Amino acid sequence: MLVAADKMLKDALKGKYAVGHFNINNLEWTKAILETAQENNSPVILGVSEGAGKYMGGYKTVVGMVKGMIEELNITVPVAIHLDHGSFEGAKKCIEAGFTSVMFDGSKYPIDENIEKTKEIVELAHSKGISVEAEVGAIGGEEDGVIGQGEIADKNECKRISELGIDFLAAGIGNIHGVYPENWKGLDFNALGEIKGEIGEMPLVLHGGTGIPTDMIKEAISLGVSKINVNTECQIVFTEETRKYFEENKDKEKKGFDPRKVLKPGYEAIKAKVKEKMEIFGSIDKAN
Ligand code: 13P
Fold first, then answer.
1. pLDDT tens, 182-230?
2. Separation of 209 CA from ligand 1 center, angstroms?
3. Contacts of 284 (CB under 8 A, 6+ apart)
4. pLDDT tens digits, one per residue of 244-257
5. Residue of the CA atom closest to atom 9 of ligand 1
6. How far apart are CA 192 and CA 209, in angstroms?
7. Distance, CA 276 to ligand 1 centroid (Å)?
8. pTM
9. Which fold has domain 5-281?
10. 29 CA from centroid of ligand 1 (Å)
11. Where are the domains of the chain?
12. Which of 23, 188, 189, 256 is deepest in the core (most CB within 10 A)?
């Protein structure tokens, strides 16, 4: 069932669990995530970066693919199609294309400009029942050409953005995209607690979910994180399993060159990874 993400995250905040946002890259990714959510009776958010949207043929193609799968694979759990780290123009395009949720990432702008632009996106999106994620304090690392420096968000800025009617907020607390470096200091739970104190009953989003230890994930959830974004980990397991397929010369056996066979081990690996994350996040059996 295709829905906006506001209600599922409010439910998650109340129930002290988090909904996984898994980035999609192609048809196999999308099908793997949707089927895993259905098998585990879990709500799910399909994250689409601007780069991945373009790669898949455009935002309308993505919406068509997801809607078709929801219908034909009988996916009854709540599913949101969510723009990840959208630009101002990108967010507007996704609102038009039929996304049910958008992130406008104005963290690169001075706070007043971020506020102005976020406000405009909220008005547009809410007029169509679409949920909005905003960001304060850039998330570190690099994702699809979007480079953030890894900051601790300013709690007063978080408060200002949270008052614009957004549905959930991404605030940097030392998290970064991609694999964490050896010397990573971990999440800043003091900052998380202070931010939460300023924004009240608004769900928080934790980006850079790849490689964050389980105990830190659980603590973050207990402090108000209700959406956790995972991308790199699925990419890594997909590529590892695909590599094995070729290393074991499976492509040379019978019709092993058929792309449906080539992509199957990677597809299964994504399913296992998504299930593992849903267990850690506590979203299994939370579809209602
Ligand atoms: P990772 O690639 O580190 O899992 O981060 C994903 C993310 O935050 C998407 O917005």
1. 888 899 999 999 999 999 999 999 999 999 999 999 999 999 999 999 9
2. 6
3. 40, 41, 42, 278
4. 999 999 999 999 99
5. 229
6. 15
7. 16
8. 0.96
9. TIM Barrel (3.20.20)
10. 15
11. 5-281
12. 23
